[in-house]
Every structure is written in structure tokens, then in C-alpha cells.
């Protein structure tokens, strides 16, 4: 499976190279006029890959962009004549910067008000087509990655998502290849024990989301109960700025009644539409035309088992434009 995934990644890399140079560009990242020198051309070619590595390690697009900026500053000072593999070198810089930032973010999240959820991304259609990439950036999976140590997370992402060799990963995280193998084994077992059950097709997720949307729009409590799994979990992230549940709400009856009561109060001003968020169908809730909440879901056996409602305004900026993710 590893070799097949590597072949597929290499095959798509060439077809995506031109798109990578333009899609998802960070307007704050100053690469200089013209983009003609070799260092800039290489960075632009791989910037979406580097963003994806940083985002999967951090769960935050804003912090991933900061990592890109730091990576560029270090890359611009490198003597390219000494670099054998430019892609690997860039990934190594980005990984080190992301690791440093991840350790700082861990301390900040300890004092976060309520549940912390990853920053949602409005993703390009091709992300959903890459099933493994879409799974790795789903809200449910990113929350599982939050339970790993920073080094475990880096090793897991680089090995299981991007299929890097143990030697390359060892250079990126400052460990020996033997140690990286042990860390990868431990992280893989940890994730396997916590990751959502089974693969779900986009069509199945869309069907469940459509049923959920109809129930919300009509205020039909029984329809809500019918689409929610008995052990469904609702997580909300208001960041202390917007009202949101501070602790997980568990159980179909509790979740359905909470949603019916909360959304019923604003139904006249509420509009909902579906969008591709982190490679999966999700809902965008607007109040009086302004984006208020992004709701991602996890579906199992046709029922919604997880609801992830992001209301923190600081986390909604990447819902204004599509973000390209690459492996």
C-alpha cells in the first residue's frame, strides 16, 4: 500500500505543479517581484505542500501561514548549491518550525475557553478526490492528532500522510531513524485506537448532512433525532468570543433538543448552505447574511456521530476563499 500511495503521489505531483504555483497563495507572504529566481520558484512550487504539512501538524491555518513565512525566510538564505533534494529540505524546515510552534500552542490551548476545534478550511474540489488526504484533514482526524505529543504528530503526519522515508523524517525531527520507527509505531497504534470507525463515502456524508439540514430548517425535532446516532457528540468552539457549548454534549436527545432550541430562536435570520470543508461536506450557517458558524460532521452507518461547530470568528477567515492542499 505504501508503494502504491507513493506512486500515486508522484504521478499527481507533476499534474498539480502549475496549479500549486497559484492556488491558495498567502497574500501576506512576500516572495519578491517576478518570482523568477530558483529559490522563489522552488518555494512557490511546493508552498501548498508545505502549508498542508504545517496545517496537519497545527490544526490552525493562521499558524500554518506563519510557519510558511518562517520557512521562506530560512529558505531564502540557503545556498542552493549545497541542497540535494529541495523538496525534502523545505519540508524539513517547515516541520522544524511547525514543531516549535506546536509546543507553544499546546500551552496556549490549556487555557482556551471551552472546546478547542481545528480551524476549518474551504477546500478545493480535488481534496475530496484524494480520499487519504481528505481523511487526514477531517475535523475528526485532526482532533485525534491533538492527542499525540508534538514529535509523535510530526512523525505520523510525515510518514502516514506524506509517505516520507524514516531517514528524511529523522532529519526533520532531530531523532535517529531507529527512534523514528519506534515513534511511528507508537503513534500509529495510538491513532488507530482513537480514529473514527471505517471509511465513509462523500455521498453518504452528503445524504446525512442534507437530512440534518432539512431537520434544522423545519425545526422538526423527530427528524433531528432520526439522523443522529444514539451516542452522537456535539463539540462547540466559540473561543470565549461567541456563545458555544463549553463541554461536549453527548446523546441524541440532548443534542437534538439543544439544537432545536438554539436554532429556533434565530430561524428567521438563519440561512444554511453546504460547502466542502476540509475535504468533506459541511454546513455554513449565516445570520443576516454574515457567516456565523461552520458545522462539520462525522457519519457512521448513515447516522451523524460527531458534530463540530466552529463559531470563533478568528477561525472563520479561511472560509472566504478556497484553500489548496497537497501531498
Report the sheet with the most strands, covering strand number, pairing sense and barrel closure.
Answer: 6 strands, mixed
Radius of gyration: 20 Å
Through-space gap between termini: 16 Å
Mean pLDDT metric: 89
Written account of the structure:
The chain is 53% helix and 14% strand. Helix 3 packs across helix 4 (86-109). A six-stranded mixed beta sheet has the order 2-1-6-5-4-3. The chain is built from 13 helices and six strands. It is α+β, with helices and mostly antiparallel strands and 327 residues long. The longest helix has 24 residues, at 86-109. It is elongated. The protein has helices at residues 2-20, 38-58, 61-76, 86-109, 125-129, 131-136, 139-145, 150-161, 166-173, 177-194, 202-218, 221-227, 252-264, and strands at 228-237, 249-250, 270-277, 280-287, 290-300, 303-310.
Q: Summed up, what is this model?
A:
This protein has helices at residues 2-20, 38-58, 61-76, 86-109, 125-129, 131-136, 139-145, 150-161, 166-173, 177-194, 202-218, 221-227, 252-264, and strands at residues 228-237, 249-250, 270-277, 280-287, 290-300, 303-310. Helix 11 (202-218) runs antiparallel to helix 12 (221-227).
Key terms:
single chain, alpha+beta, 14% strand, disordered N terminus
Chart the SSEs and their pairings.
Layout: H1 2-20, H2 38-58, H3 61-76, H4 86-109, H5 125-129, H6 131-136, H7 139-145, H8 150-161, H9 166-173, H10 177-194, H11 202-218, H12 221-227, E1 228-237, E2 249-250, H13 252-264, E3 270-277, E4 280-287, E5 290-300, E6 303-310
Parallel strand pairs: 1-6
Antiparallel strand pairs: 1-2, 3-4, 4-5, 5-6
Helix pairs in contact: 2-3, 2-4, 3-4, 4-9, 8-10, 9-10, 11-12, 12-13
Amino acid at each position: 500500500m505504501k508503494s502504491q500511495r507513493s506512486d500515486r503521489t508522484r504521478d499527481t505531483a507533476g499534474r498539480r505543479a502549475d496549479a500549486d504555483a497559484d492556488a491558495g497563495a498567502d497574500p501576506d507572504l512576500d516572495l519578491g517581484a517576478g518570482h523568477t529566481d530558483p529559490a522563489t520558484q522552488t518555494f512557490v512550487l511546493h508552498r501548498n505542500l508545505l502549508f498542508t504539512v504545517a496545517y496537519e501538524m497545527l490544526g490552525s491555518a493562521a499558524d500554518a501561514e506563519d510557519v510558511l513565512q518562517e520557512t521562506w525566510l530560512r529558505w531564502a538564505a540557503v545556498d542552493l548549491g549545497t541542497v540535494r533534494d529541495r523538496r525534502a529540505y523545505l519540508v524539513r524546515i517547515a516541520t522544524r518550525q511547525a514543531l516549535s510552534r506546536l509546543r507553544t500552542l499546546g500551552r496556549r490551548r490549556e487555557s482556551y475557553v471551552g472546546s478547542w476545534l481545528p480551524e476549518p478550511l474551504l477546500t478545493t474540489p480535488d481534496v475530496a478526490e484524494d480520499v487519504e488526504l481528505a481523511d487526514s484533514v477531517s475535523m475528526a482526524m485532526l482532533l485525534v492528532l491533538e492527542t499525540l505529543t508534538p514529535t509523535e504528530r510530526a512523525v505520523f503526519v510525515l510518514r502516514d500522510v506524506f509517505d516520507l522515508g524514516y531517514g528524511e523524517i529523522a532529519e526533520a525531527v532531530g531523532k535517529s531513524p531507529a527512534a523514528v520507527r519506534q515513534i511511528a509505531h507508537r503513534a500509529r497504534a495510538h491513532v488507530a485506537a482513537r480514529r473514527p470507525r471505517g471509511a465513509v463515502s462523500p455521498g453518504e456524508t452528503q445524504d446525512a448532512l442534507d437530512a440534518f439540514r432539512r431537520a434544522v430548517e423545519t425545526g422538526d425535532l423527530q427528524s433531528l433525532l432520526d439522523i443522529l446516532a444514539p451516542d452522537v457528540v456535539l463539540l462547540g468552539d466559540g473561543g470565549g468570543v461567541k456563545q458555544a457549548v463549553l463541554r461536549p454534549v453527548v446523546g441524541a436527545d440532548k443534542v437534538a433538543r439543544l439544537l432545536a432550541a438554539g436554532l429556533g430562536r434565530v430561524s428567521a435570520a438563519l440561512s444554511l448552505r453546504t460547502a466542502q470543508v476540509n475535504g468533506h461536506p459541511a454546513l455554513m450557517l449565516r445570520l443576516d447574511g454574515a457567516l456565523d458558524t461552520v458545522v462539520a460532521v462525522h457519519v457512521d452507518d448513515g447516522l451523524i456521530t460527531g458534530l463540530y461547530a466552529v463559531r470563533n470568528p478568528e477561525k472563520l477567515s479561511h472560509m472566504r476563499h478556497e484553500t489548496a492542499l497537497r501531498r
